[in-house]
Design a protein that fits this description.
The protein has a 5-stranded mixed beta sheet with strand order 1-2-3-4-5, sandwiched between helices. The chain is of the alpha/beta class. The protein has one domain: 2-Layer Sandwich (Transcription Regulator spoIIAA), CATH 3.30.750.24. The chain is 42% helix and 35% strand.
Length: 120
């Protein structure tokens, strides 16, 4: 598993779990349903769990930026869960520039992150 995707229509929460290197195919398998989820609900919340990160296909930089610019205003809350040292600070820095509410959590706080994102 590099990317696993799950969504809950009742809470409007999409969950993306990353473990390893992200290929274009894996990215598409998560982002296409996420786009449909956003289109269906208008505004959603996102839970990102990063178990491990082995990089990504360089062609995804442009695709990711296009997705972000198109959808950032439709994602009201983001919870980032990881024990990778640089993930939290980078997420917080990016979150400071975005109109979304973002919180970071350690892996031992996954339950707390799920509670926060569903109740937000």
């Amino acid at each position: 598993m590099t990317i696993a995707y799950h969504e809950d229509d009742d809470t409007r929460v999409a969950e993306i779990r990353v473990g390893g290197k992200i290929t274009t195919e894996e990215y598409d398998r998560a982002v296409m349903p996420l786009q449909e989820f956003i289109d269906r609900h208008g505004t959603v919340k996102l839970l990102e769990i990063v178990d491990s990160f082995g990089g990504y296909d360089p062609s995804l930089i442009w695709e990711g930026l296009k997705f972000d610019f198109r959808n950032v205003r439709h994602i009201s809350h983001v919870a980032v869960v990881s024990d990778i040292g640089w993930i939290g600070p980078v997420s917080k820095a990016a979150g400071a520039l975005l109109p979304t509410r973002l919180r970071t959590f350690g892996m031992d706080e996954l339950g707390t992150a799920r509670d926060w994102i569903t109740q937000a």
